Recover the amino acids of this structure.
């Protein structure tokens, strides 16, 4: 686990010994290749081999899948890939980029401690890849935009400047929600709450038996939780206004409802959680669910593998649900976190790089990634999954709506870390060191500062 204040990194961006791999997909096979407008360009003959440099973060999915995808891409297009993978990719490519040596394609999500992707966003150093959406997927007859699941190219995670253009391609996605032990609820005769009122009722029942309603690995896990909650209380328009720091947004009834829910949930949270809510001890908080000491925790699909060898209560069975709705019959949301792929504006081989991006949404590439547990946001792909993955990725087929996006990028503001202000403060709410009112005032203060620095 690499992040203190970001939900998205836990379990996905692995730490440990550096594992760097640089390989070339060695083939000089000449094939027809598509241009960025989807037309076919003949590259056969005496033209030099096209070579692109692809840099990809090695996470819990491993590096082998990238080698296989690079080789398959070369076999399909004739474009040679020089591949670099590393668990600390920023350290490997950062120095070269400062010297003007840029990869052509980079797979590196936002939310990592080095913030390399965020830096390039703030410096307007990402290539506009909107045209990729209209390209034909290499090896197929479908357009990229018709392969990518709805909504994934319409959020601030892919369109960070709110200018109607796409700068980052959505990659491996993980539905985020509340994980629990199905066996515990069945044993007690308790139902999964469908509204927050039902959630509080369950919390009172559980308290009588010495079980906490809630736990979380670190306070950073409240990012996906809070984003989904913003959708629930006010819908997509409210979410957009909140995440772009619209003046007065935190004084609205919708915002107050979200604050009230988080503050009340803090009172139902196992009291030992804040002391272990850090990179060293977060697994202890996750263990609370496996030991039936707490019922629900926010997390992503990677938690299953992360806790695979951990002890657990007899009969334990993972359950997964979206957040309860705020009203009976209201919308229930599950935030979807996904990684991003992008092309530096300074890349040398942009046309070939865009073909590589388009190939990421081919059935062939998706199948290779899925072998390692990395699931692409491709329409209908969840139908091919089995077991726990079927449970997770079918959540949107069971009535939940997908929440996408995050707080908009701004120019740096000295002393402001909005993730810590909004999410990190939950530790203090649980411990009682800060009040709900103090939390709200800090959010409003920092939001005003960020609004003036909005790109």
């Amino acid at each position: 686990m690499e992040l203190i204040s970001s939900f998205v990194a836990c379990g996905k961006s692995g730490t440990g010994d550096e594992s760097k791999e640089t390989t070339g997909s060695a083939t000089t096979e000449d094939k027809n290749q598509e241009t960025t407008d989807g037309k076919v360009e003949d590259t056969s003959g005496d033209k030099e081999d096209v070579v692109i440099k692809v840099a990809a973060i090695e996470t819990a999915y491993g590096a082998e899948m990238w080698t296989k995808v690079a080789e398959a891409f070369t076999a399909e297009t004739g474009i040679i890939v020089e591949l670099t993978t590393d668990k600390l990719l920023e350290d490997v490519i950062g120095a070269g980029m400062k010297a003007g040596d840029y990869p052509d394609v980079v797979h590196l999500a936002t939310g990592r401690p080095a913030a390399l992707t965020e830096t390039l966003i703030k410096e307007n150093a990402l290539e506009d890849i909107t045209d990729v959406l209209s390209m034909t997927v290499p090896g197929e007859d479908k357009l990229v935009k018709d392969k990518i699941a709805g909504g994934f190219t319409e959020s601030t995670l892919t369109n960070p400047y709110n200018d109607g253009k796409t700068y980052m391609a959505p990659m491996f996605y993980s539905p985020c929600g509340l994980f629990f032990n199905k066996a515990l609820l069945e044993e007690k005769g308790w139902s999964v709450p469908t509204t927050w009122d039902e959630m509080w009722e369950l919390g009172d029942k559980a308290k009588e038996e010495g079980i906490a309603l809630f736990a979380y690995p670190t306070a950073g896990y409240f990012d996906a939780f809070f984003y989904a909650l913003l959708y629930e209380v006010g819908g997509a328009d409210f979410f957009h206004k909140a995440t772009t720091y619209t003046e007065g947004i935190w004084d609205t009834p919708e915002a107050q409802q979200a604050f009230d829910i988080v503050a009340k949930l803090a009172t139902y949270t196992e009291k030992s959680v804040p002391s272990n809510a850090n990179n060293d001890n977060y697994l202890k908080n996750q263990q609370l669910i496996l030991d039936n000491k707490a019922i629900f925790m926010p997390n992503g699909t990677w938690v299953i593998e992360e806790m695979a060898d951990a002890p657990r209560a007899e009969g334990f069975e993972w359950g997964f649900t979206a957040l309860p709705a705020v009203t009976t019959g209201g919308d229930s949301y599950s935030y979807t976190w996904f990684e991003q792929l992008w092309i530096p504006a300074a890349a040398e081989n942009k046309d070939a790089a865009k073909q590589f991006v388009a190939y990421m949404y081919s059935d062939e590439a998706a199948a290779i990634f899925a072998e390692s547990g990395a699931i692409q946001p491709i329409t209908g792909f969840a139908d091919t999954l089995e077991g726990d993955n079927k449970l997770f990725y079918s959540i949107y087929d069971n009535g939940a709506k997908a929440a996408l996006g995050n707080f908009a990028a701004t120019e740096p503001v000295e002393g402001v870390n909005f993730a810590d202000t909004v999410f990190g403060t939950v530790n203090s709410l649980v411990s009682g060191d800060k009040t709900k009112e103090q939390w709200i005032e800090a959010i409003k203060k920092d939001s005003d500062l960020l609004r003036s620095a909005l790109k």
Observations:
- The chain has a mean pLDDT of 88.
